[in-house]
């Protein structure tokens, strides 16, 4: 997959089959659109092209939404997820206030026709584009012959009678239902960050943890609690259990922290990059009457986490 930051490097695309959108999370519904895009490109000996935008348009149009709308994927995560779908080209357009003023007609003429040379446009059932989201499937069908390309709409995709959407996945994660979120995504939801120095309380009770500083403050963090997780550090995958919360038994901090106890791992990894993928929520955060009760619960959590992680290995 060739990644284009802007339209300047796009040249001589052959029979471009195009889609566009934010594609946050690259979930089950997104993959249906991309599969169809790639299928058409193969049949017509063309090149599949996906146009996306960064930063998220809502952050530019409604700056206050940065505190309300958290994203399922960082830009790097989105690129990696899209590359795995077998696209030929990814076009990342910087979304600015000026860009947001492009009308649907201007977007079509300047981006889809002049820059990319679109032969066919494939869009999801609810996709809109251009200033004030004025462009729609109906608009494209009505005017497509004037622009010189065909348009195909992908109907609403459903999973267990529930329409898959980034919004529903966010809701699942904020409710701690990572299993439902993973099912909608088609992969395990994860966060990436750097291991930072902590207060080493976990080490003093036999459960050393790596404190994680997440790379992006726009990234959605699941509901507080204890989770069974998969952990990637220094190129290797491990099992683990992760806590999101304020650790009320051992501190009076008001700031929420993310810390993971990695199973069968003893190396020092301060300042190292780390990735954690969520498997199952084990329990909510609790306050215990002392460290002895806390350790007893952590032992139960570890046994429970290992059980769920082993079940996944068996299924794979």
**CATH class identity of the largest domain:** Alpha Beta
Instruction: Tally the structural domains.
Output: 2
CATH topology of the largest domain: Rossmann fold
Could you tell me the number of beta strands?
14
CATH superfamily of the largest domain: HUPs
Mean pLDDT reading: 90
Helical segment tally?
A: 10
Largest sheet: 6 strands, parallel
- N/C terminus separation: 28 Å
Query: Could you say which structural class the secondary elements and strand pairing correspond to?
Result: alpha/beta
Uncertain segments: none
Describe this structure in words.
The protein has 10 helices and 14 strands. It has 316 residues and is of the alpha/beta class. It has 2 domains: 162 residues, Rossmann fold; 127 residues, Riboflavin kinase-like (Elongation Factor Tu (Ef-tu), domain 3), CATH 2.40.30.30. Helix 7 runs antiparallel to helix 8.
Topology, element by element:
Layout: E1 2-5, E2 16-20, H1 28-43, E3 47-54, H2 57-61, H3 75-83, E4 89-94, H4 97-100, H5 104-115, E5 118-124, H6 137-147, E6 150-154, E7 158-159, E8 162-163, H7 166-174, H8 178-185, E9 190-196, H9 201-204, E10 210-214, E11 225-233, E12 236-245, E13 257-262, E14 273-283, H10 291-315
Parallel strand pairs: 1-4, 2-3, 2-5, 3-4, 5-6
Antiparallel strand pairs: 7-8, 9-10, 9-14, 10-13, 11-12, 11-14, 12-13
């Amino acid at each position: 997959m060739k990644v284009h930051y802007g339209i300047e490097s796009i040249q001589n695309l052959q029979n471009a089959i195009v889609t566009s959108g934010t594609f946050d999370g690259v979930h089950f519904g997104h993959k249906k659109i991309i599969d169809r895009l790639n299928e058409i490109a193969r049949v017509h000996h063309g090149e599949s092209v996906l146009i996306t935008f960064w930063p998220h348009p809502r952050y530019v149009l409604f700056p206050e939404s940065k505190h309300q709308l958290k994203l399922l994927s960082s830009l790097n995560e989105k690129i990696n997820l899209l590359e795995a779908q077998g696209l030929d080209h990814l076009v990342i357009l910087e979304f600015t206030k000026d860009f947001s003023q492009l009308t649907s007609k201007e977007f079509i003429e300047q981006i889809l026709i002049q820059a990319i040379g679109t032969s066919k446009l494939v869009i999801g059932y609810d996709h809109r584009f251009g200033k004030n989201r004025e462009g729609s499937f109906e608009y494209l069908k009505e005017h497509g012959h004037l622009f010189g390309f065909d348009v195909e709409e992908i109907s609403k995709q459903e999973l267990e009678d529930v329409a898959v959407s980034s919004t529903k996945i966010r809701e699942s994660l904020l409710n701690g239902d990572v299993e439902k979120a993973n099912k909608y995504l088609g992969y395990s939801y994860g966060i990436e960050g750097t291991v930072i120095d902590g207060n080493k309380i976990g080490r003093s009770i036999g459960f050393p943890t790596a404190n994680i500083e997440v790379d992006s403050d726009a990234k959605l963090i699941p509901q507080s609690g204890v989770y069974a997780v998969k952990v990637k550090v220094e190129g290797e995958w491990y099992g683990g259990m992760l806590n999101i919360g304020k650790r009320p038994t051992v501190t009076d901090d008001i700031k929420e922290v993310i810390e993971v106890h990695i199973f069968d791992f003893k190396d020092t990894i301060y300042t190292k990059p780390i990735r954690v993928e969520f498997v199952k929520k084990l329990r909510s955060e609790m306050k215990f009457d002392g460290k002895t009760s806390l350790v007893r619960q952590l032992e139960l959590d570890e046994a429970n986490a290992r059980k769920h992680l082993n079940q996944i290995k068996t299924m794979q």
